[in-house]
Specification:
The complex is a heterodimer. By secondary structure, chain A is an alpha+beta fold. Chain A has helices at about 15-35, 60-75, 90-100, 115-120, 130-135, 145, 170-175, 190-200, 215-225, 240-255, 260-265, 275-280, 290-295, 330-345, 345-350, 360-370, 375-385, 400-415, 420-435, and strands at about 50-55, 80-85, 105-110, 150, 155, 160, 160-165, 165-170, 230, 235, 285, 300-305, 315-320, 320-325. Chain A has 19 helices and 14 strands. The chains are: A alpha+beta, B mainly alpha.
Chain lengths: ~450, ~325
């Protein structure tokens, strides 16, 4: 070989690359070869199939999921499951590692942060053909939920819970101070004015500052006729971001929101850190289906409404999906399992609303009728009411979305701590997200 | 002249006479050549581990650093990109230089403070008094917990707005803030955590202090030296090899800080990137953004930089480290 730079030369590249990637692939294949000793690669002669099934969540979810899968095994004794679950922290590291080793689980849980990352890299099986042939029945699903699982025309994941933005407020504190409760349909300015007034009367910050929150920013953008993304492009301008940051700078200056360090605490996604639960603000910007979980963490009575502005611009967001690994040996069985989990009334009873409001509307009303949990009832009611008027759903966030999210937090916090003007923070965020999306 | 003479004199008899005669004198049969192989067989568990777990993955990461490997795609779509990752790092990634600044600040502040704390406490504990052993154990305790996640969580809660530290300040009428949530102080709390874990270098200092010959202190006393003079003229020079050892180790540790920053910021490096350590930035690039090729390149730049810093420390050692078996 000649100079090192000739590595990039197309004449030399193939051999050199093949050699090296062979070595690399060999290393990656090592655990695979070991794993293959388990013998689940080929369907056995007696038709026995074992599917690996991977999800994140807590103990309660694990119990429900295992029960549901056992029910499938009871009905199809030849199919068993290798169930693996863990906490959300580290889940995607592990999923990525398994995928890198060509050893991804046959069925895995995923969310809209990562769906496009996996789908555009061809890790997920396109479920559209199964949907057309009726093997995967989605006729009872709201249309938006299917759209929000489609990446580049392929159905990359089957939604397992509907969800939409929800503004959760502390009813107890507001009523005690005789402040009128917030209502769906207030404009953003009205909401901020309400929060100022509530802060004075209750001595608690009126509302968490959501300027770092992509889902609030997104709804606000849609109400301005913009989008967070148009395909693989940003759907907004620098000026939009600046306006958004300025809106909340005004709210902070007017003492409608807490101080920057408290806002930062509330910017974490952890349910127990939400300010409406920790008592540091009267409202938190969350997903509506988190409401029952929030209620568990506080003695105060909570309520939930839509985000301010035109609520029809909200959309049915899928709280999470199940995807089938494209490299699985048992595609048909895996899809059948998804079909069963999504549409079987008995399973619906077992899973309840643990992953969000059931996607199948029949099952959802069945669950709503049988639940005893008042905050669950309220959530289903509110989301159901909003869902009637939803416009078209946006597409699933593209590759780079998780970077855009963290860049928004960074830029918004720069503005909140007063280290940057809204204009400078907007400029920074816009440049960083453009880089992240076009990668 | 004389030191040289003594050294040679000391060494000559110690050197084993060469040739087969030596074996005969020890009364053992001459060993067959296969001894070497047996040695490697005994080494093999370690050697295999080194190859499989360290050497090969390292070489792989070197290779990956010249590609656009993204973890999820299959190998066919992974391309050789030459030095692109390295170029991006130095010219297009503002967070890279930010992370370098944060890390250097952390290492430059935390390491000397930690060593000073370790030496100070070691000096106090070097005296013999009742319960000295218990105190040594207590001071070492925080280090046993090491880079543990639990400890970092405790730290975050201690320095939060309603944490123990602010309750302490409240006794003096000072109203504290949420230190861990403030971009001006978050890194400071991490430095404090690192300094607090001074147990490991302290134990090494203690061992070093025990080696200082008492005669030297007595001689110094006879010459009229006070405690301070004794410290600078006797303790420090004799201890300098130990200080050197601790300095190298703790500097490397400082640069590699990860766990506490990860826990404090929930893996983001926040607030406002104030705790974005180099290793954390690398982790985010690799595992959140799936730019594993880039992350690999960062890892290699990191390795070379730490190597360079260590080499510089070694170079300066010539000027301030005194080995007592040397010529003076």
């Amino acid at each position: 070989m000649t100079a090192p730079m000739s590595f990039a030369d197309s004449h030399h590249r193939p051999t050199r690359r093949r050699l090296l990637s062979g070595l690399v692939a060999g290393m990656l294949a090592l655990p695979l070869a070991l794993g293959a000793c388990g013998g689940d690669d080929e369907p056995a002669a007696d038709g026995k199939v074992e599917l690996s099934f991977f999800w994140w969540g807590g103990e309660a979810r694990a119990e429900l999921t295992e029960k549901a899968l056992d029910l499938y095994t009871a009905k199809h004794p030849n199919v068993t499951f290798k169930k693996t679950w863990q906490a959300n922290q580290g889940y995607f590291d592990k999923l990525a590692t398994l995928t890198a080793g060509d050893d991804a689980p046959d069925i895995f849980q995923i969310d809209d942060n990562y769906l496009a990352e996996y789908a555009t890299r061809n890790v997920t099986l396109d479920l559209a053909s199964y949907q057309q042939s009726g093997k995967l029945d989605t006729t009872k699903f709201p249309k938006g939920l299917i759209e929000y699982g489609t990446v580049d025309g392929k159905l990359a994941g089957l939604s397992f819970g509907e969800n939409t933005q929800g503004l959760v407020y502390n009813k107890t504190k507001l009523e005690a101070a005789k402040v009128p409760l917030p209502t769906t349909g207030q404009s953003w300015e009205e909401h901020i004015a309400w929060a100022k007034d509530a802060a004075v009367k209750t001595k608690v910050a009126g509302t968490q500052d959501p300027s770092a929150d992509y889902k609030a920013f997104w709804v606000w953008l849609r109400q301005q006729g913009k989008e967070l993304y148009n395909g693989n492009q940003l759907g907004f301008t620098k000026e939009d971001v600046q306006k958004w940051f300025e809106l909340w700078k005004g709210a902070r200056d007017g003492k409608a929101t807490p101080t920057a360090d408290v806002i930062h605490e509330g910017n974490q996604t952890d349910v127990t850190k939400q300010l409406v639960v920790t008592g540091k603000a009267l409202t938190s910007w969350v997903w509506a289906n988190q409401m029952p979980e929030l209620q568990k963490n506080t003695k105060d009575q909570l309520g939930v409404i839509a985000y301010p502005g035109d609520a029809t611009k909200q959309w049915p967001r899928s709280s999470m999906y199940f995807s089938v690994y494209r490299g699985t040996e048992h595609k048909d069985t895996a899809v059948d399992v998804l079909n069963f989990l999504a549409n079987d009334p008995e399973v619906g009873k077992i899973l309840g609303t643990d992953r969000g409001l059931p996607s199948n509307l029949d099952i959802r009303s069945q669950v709503a009728a049988s639940t005893e949990n008042p905050s669950m009832k309220q959530t289903i009611e509110v989301v159901g009411e909003l869902a009637k008027n939803f416009g078209p759903a946006p597409t699933v966030p593209p590759k780079g979305h998780s970077t855009v999210r963290s860049e928004l937090i960074k830029a918004a916090e720069e503005a909140q701590y007063g280290r940057a003007t809204p204009a400078a923070a907007a400029e920074q965020f816009f440049a960083a997200s453009q880089a992240a999306i076009s990668r | 002249m004389s030191p040289v003479a003594t050294t040679t004199a000391r060494q000559t008899p110690a050197r084993p006479p060469a040739g087969p005669a030596a074996h005969q004198r020890r009364g053992r049969p001459a060993r067959p050549k296969t001894d070497g192989i047996a040695g490697y067989v005994f080494l093999s568990p370690w050697l295999l581990g080194l190859l499989a777990i360290t050497a090969v993955p390292m070489l792989m990461s070197l290779y990956l650093s010249f590609t656009n490997y993204d973890v999820l795609s299959d190998w066919e779509s992974t391309e050789w990109v030459g030095l692109d990752n390295y170029r991006t790092m130095f010219t297009e990634d503002p967070s890279f230089w930010h992370a370098v600044r944060v890390t250097v600040t952390f290492a430059l502040v935390a390491t000397p403070l930690k060593l000073a704390a370790a030496l100070g406490v070691a000096l106090l504990l070097n005296r013999s008094f009742r319960g000295a052993g218990i105190f040594r154990g207590l001071f070492y305790l925080p280090s046993l917990l090491g880079g543990s996640v639990a400890l970092a969580i405790v730290w975050v809660n201690m320095f939060n707005r309603d944490g123990a530290f602010n309750s302490f300040l409240a006794w003096f009428g000072i109203e504290g803030k949420a230190w861990v949530n403030d971009p001006d102080f978050a890194l400071g709390t991490l430095i404090l955590l690192a300094v607090w874990q001074f147990g490991a270098p302290m134990v090494i200092f203690l061992a070093g202090l025990k080696q200082v010959p008492n005669e030297l202190y007595e001689a110094a006393s006879v010459d009229g030296a006070g405690a301070v003079r004794k410290f600078f003229a006797v303790t420090l020079p004799i201890l300098s090899p130990v200080i050197f050892f601790n300095l190298v180790l703790e500097t490397i540790n400082g640069f590699q800080g990860f766990t506490s920053a990860f826990v404090l910021s929930n893996g983001t490096g926040g607030p406002v990137d104030s705790t974005l350590m180099y290793t954390l930035h690398l982790y985010i690039k690799g595992w959140n953004e799936y730019q594993m090729g880039y992350a690999s390149a960062m890892a290699w730049v990191f390795l070379l930089s730490i190597g360079l810093v260590t080499a510089v420390i070694f170079r300066t050692g010539k000027f301030w480290v005194h080995y007592s078996d040397g010529e003076d």
